[in-house]
Amino acid sequence: MMRYSIWGPHKGPGLLATAVALVTVAACSNSAPTGAPTPPTPSGGTSASAAPTSAQPSPTPTPSRTYPLSTAPRTVPAVRDHEAARGPGWKPTPTAGIVIAAGSEGLADEARLLAGELKIAYRGAVAARAGDVELALGGKGSPESYTLTTRDDRVRITGPDQAGVFYGTRTLKQSVKGSGAMPEGTVIDTPAKPQRGLNLDIARKFFTAEWIEARLREMADLKLNQFGLHFSDDQGFRIASDTHPEIVSEQHLTKAEVRRILALAQTLHITVVPEIDSPGHLGAVLRAYPNLQLRNVQGTPRQGAIDISKPASARLVDELLREYAALFPGGWFHVGADEYQALTVRSPAASYPQLATAARQRYGPQASVQDLAEGWLNDRAAVVRDTGKVAKAWNDGFFSGGVVQADKSIEVEYWTGKEIGARPPGEYLAEGRKVVNLNDEYLYYVLGEPNQFTYPTGRRIYEQWTPLVLRGTTPVPARYDPQILGGRLAVWCDLSGAQTQAQVANGIRLPLAALAQKVWDPAKPSMTWDQFRALAARVR
Hints:
Strand order of the largest sheet: 8-9-10-13-14-15-16-18
Structural class: alpha/beta
Shape: elongated
Mean pLDDT: 90
Helix content: 25-40%
Largest sheet: 8 strands, parallel, barrel
Distance between the termini: 33 Å
């Protein structure tokens, strides 16, 4: 902290006059200040009132510059803990730089990105100096936690893993963008939920690689870490295939484009989760394999459904799962399992006798078509598990009351209570299953708003939704909170022409920001919706 003499940092007549006046007043005063004790009379001497008027005054204290206690940086999502301090904070200057602490060279990508965003120099693994931002690995906590300390005209961001340090840089970036500075003090921050993100349907509507990359950058600034990519459905198969090029739609992402997307996602600490939905929603694949399409007893085909009684069906889907598991390096693969049309009729066994026969042959005389479908889910999950990934599946693919139960290692992606097989969320949680929240009441952005869907609003998510609200508007008991892994906003393109890519990007901006707030911090937000919305616009 800078201290000033009575002359100040620059000598001048104004301060000189003030100093002379102070000395004059002190010399001419004969009485103690109001309330002050009367000085004692020395033994054998005169009283203080009789002292010579030439006595020197007490020295005037040197004034020092003071600052009010700092407040927490304003970011989306809000930081969870900020220790206030007095000081000027930190601002980027022409001489400032980003440096890496010794032994933390793995943070070079994060450092270079931040330097470019703040428009200051990247200086590498050198000692920090005044005005610098230093990134360092170290400390305890979850991999996504970080500590950001602003003191002595420096910022230091530390975390036990690169992801946490990266999130610290997002806090710094937003604070500087929104207010011009990083407040003095210490931020200690960590997410409430490990899975936070966006789901995108590119099967029904093609989105360019550039559009996807822009969403990844937006997600990263919001500290979101998971991007679900639904690229296979009845309307299209949107990523190039080496094993089955005959199924790929004309408009699709090349594998080079996908690798570019994945490379960016990795630098932003986002995991891309691919999805090939089966045994339903396979229409684009089945156009090349009509012999595998499910047909009822009259020979009528069912849209998008594959005949799971045929061994060739499993071989085809498993070849695709293995091909794309090799392309996507992340730790998850979504295998779908929702809305299998064989289970939507009054009597599945009567309508699809081949499925009923296959169920009994494999699982015993009490097995039903439902059990065959549940066995299909388990088999696909096993293929994914063999590639080193965790399987995810939609909640209406998890049935009860049969002889076959879904494997407990499969993560439940809870989206609805409206479909056949969809049970109240508490039942999945009571079974000990881990659940991710994609509640279609709040988190489903369905193009064209068909089937009574309405576009989600950021305000509704911000004011009403929490990860505990898995179905409808009612939360599950708080004791299940540890089993709820997080949530994602989901874009579905049922009426693909209803919005352009730009309109979708604009439409999901505030819902995504509100979701980010609610999965990062479990506390009730301190800002009103209007304040939050204004802040989200300021720091984006």
